[in-house]
Structure formats: structure tokens, C-alpha cells
Amino acid sequence: MNFSLTYDKETKELIQNRINFTSKRINILPEQLRAVFPHLLETEMKFKMNEDISSYIDHTLLKPDATKEQIKQLCQEAIDNKFYAVCVNSNRVKEAFEFLGKNSVQLAAVVGFPLGVTDTNCKIFETETAIDNGATEIDMVINVGRLKDEEYFEVLSDIREVVKSVDESVKVKVILETCLLTKELIVDACILSVIGGASFVKTSTGFSQGGAKVEDVRLMKLVVGDLAEVKASGGVRSYEDAMKMIANGATRIGTSSGVKISKEKNDVKQNQIDSISDQNLNRNSSSSSFVNPKIALCGAFLTAAISGFFAGYVYQQNSQNSNKKNPKKKK
Ligand SMILES: O=C[C@H](O)COP(=O)(O)O
């Protein structure tokens, strides 16, 4: 499946203005920052959905009252449905690691969750502990208050320090908590995440005033281009929701409804198969090619027999008639 996003004039202007604004806050030249985002010169961004939706899903359980048994079930569901990852609180990483065993499902730990306001040193310690216990990805919450205060050095350093504390192979996702941000701050947070070295920008914790919105996912993708990926999370409840996020640039879906989404996707697939079969049945109901061959053969035989009978009858009638017209001919 192919998708594309267009840089409309308004969005382009917004992003360019925020690059200027952010560059001043972190004390670099706007040209230097602009050079990091060359895709902003394009008019369109194209991308593909190559794989099954299961491989987009971070199967998530972050409730404070989640039990060991529920973590076990989460891991088993992720294995059974071939989800990309499970996402758990850092204190549950050890158990999730054991439950996942040698399966290829990745293990993401949330850090500074859900408020993002813990000290950077706490985030680093939490990150390192989670990695030691088997986490392969880190979902850290940005410091929203400092972002709103325009303390961009602090926000950048918070991200940068967490990224630096892990091996390059570990993907760090920065949760922006978009429901608390203006469009302008979403763009700034994306810029800071990219230059901080994050692999992903992620919309929401699922614990604040709102979750992922299509327009936010789209804006985030237009800012980060190919420099980072976008994870849509919080309130993604259906296959339709998930597909909308993917069509707008998300390459990962963080959701506690992964099993439902996967099932809905299979139902959609089954419906498509059923409708194709129905179409075939309707198309072929008037032709013999879809009929049981034995019945077709009997039918053909009967048709031939009846035609033969009629042919014989017509011939006989014709002969009788011609004899009547020309009695000599019979002799
Ligand atoms: O990071 C993922 C979210 O916490 C999941 O939120 P959700 O329960 O609304 O799907």
C-alpha cells in the first residue's frame, strides 16, 4: 500500500518559523538547523506499508495495577499475534523478558512515565536499569513543563542524555504528550527530539487528557521526515484507527487494543475473501464451469439426447409431410 503526505503552504511556513524560533532558543544559526531537515524543501513525502499491521504494534500494558499474570498474558498475546513489541513499565521489564524468552518480539520500557517531570538523572538510571533487565527500546516522556517554558536547552539535554546512556542499537522514543501542546510546540518538540538523537517521536502516554490524533501524527511526520519514525499511541482502539495513523505517517502503533485490532484486520481480510467468493459464485452461476462436473456431464448428455429426439422427430415429420406433398417420392 502506498501513501503520501503533502507539504501545504501553511504547514511549511509553520515548520520554517519554528525552526527559526527553536534555533534561537538553543543558540544555533537557523541555517544550521534548517540543514538538518532538507526534506522541508520537498513538496511531498511518499511512503509504503509493506508489512502486516501486526508488525506495527507495540502491545501495551502500563496500568499501575497490572499484575505479573497480566504481563505474562500480554507477552503471550504478542508472541501469538506476531506483534512488533510489548511495552511495559520499567519495573516489569525483568518478568516480560523472561516471558518473551527467545521470541523475536521486542521489549520496550517506558521511562519518566507518565508525567515526564522526573530529573534527567532519574530517567537515565531508569533507562539503564531497564536495558540491563532486557529492554531493547525506551519510550521516555519529554519534560512538557520545560517545553512550555521555552527552556529548550533543558528539554534537549534531557533527551540527549537518555539517548547517550544506551547503545546505538536501542531505539529511544520521545513521548511528546501532544494533547498538552499547541501545533507550534509539537513542531519544536519534534525538532528537539531529532537533534537529540531520538529514533521516534511518539504522540501520547495514554494517561493524560487525550490520545493520538491523525492531524498530529501527520504534522510530526512532516517535521521529522526520514530522520525519525512516528509512533501513534493512546486511544488507538480499532483497525480503522490504526490504518488512519499509518496512512498519515505512523510506523508504530502503541495500543492496549492490539489483539482486537489484529482480529478486526483478520475479519476485514475474511470479508474481502468472502466477497470475492460471492462475486465469483454470482458470475459463474449461469455458466457450467462452476457446476459439479458430473452434473454438467449428465446435463450435456440429457441435452444431446433431447436434441437428438427432437431432431429425429422433426426429420420424421418433415419426411411425412414431404411424402404427403409428393407421394411418388416415397416409392
Ligand atoms: O503507549 C501507549 C499507551 O499507553 C496505550 O494507550 P491505550 O491504552 O489508550 O491504548
From TrEMBL:
<protein>
    <recommendedName>
        <fullName>deoxyribose-phosphate aldolase</fullName>
        <ecNumber>4.1.2.4</ecNumber>
    </recommendedName>
</protein>
<keyword id="KW-1133">Transmembrane helix</keyword>
<comment type="similarity">
    <text>Belongs to the DeoC/FbaB aldolase family. DeoC type 1 subfamily.</text>
</comment>
<dbReference type="GO" id="GO:0009264">
    <property type="term" value="P:deoxyribonucleotide catabolic process"/>
</dbReference>
<feature type="transmembrane region" description="Helical">
    <location>
        <begin position="294"/>
        <end position="315"/>
    </location>
</feature>
<dbReference type="InterPro" id="IPR011343">
    <property type="entry name" value="DeoC"/>
</dbReference>
<dbReference type="GO" id="GO:0005737">
    <property type="term" value="C:cytoplasm"/>
</dbReference>
<dbReference type="InterPro" id="IPR028581">
    <property type="entry name" value="DeoC_typeI"/>
</dbReference>
<keyword id="KW-0704">Schiff base</keyword>
<keyword id="KW-0456">Lyase</keyword>
<keyword id="KW-0812">Transmembrane</keyword>
<dbReference type="Pfam" id="PF01791">
    <property type="entry name" value="DeoC"/>
</dbReference>
<dbReference type="InterPro" id="IPR002915">
    <property type="entry name" value="DeoC/FbaB/LacD_aldolase"/>
</dbReference>
<dbReference type="InterPro" id="IPR013785">
    <property type="entry name" value="Aldolase_TIM"/>
</dbReference>
<dbReference type="GO" id="GO:0004139">
    <property type="term" value="F:deoxyribose-phosphate aldolase activity"/>
</dbReference>
<dbReference type="GO" id="GO:0016052">
    <property type="term" value="P:carbohydrate catabolic process"/>
</dbReference>
<keyword id="KW-0472">Membrane</keyword>
<keyword id="KW-0963">Cytoplasm</keyword>
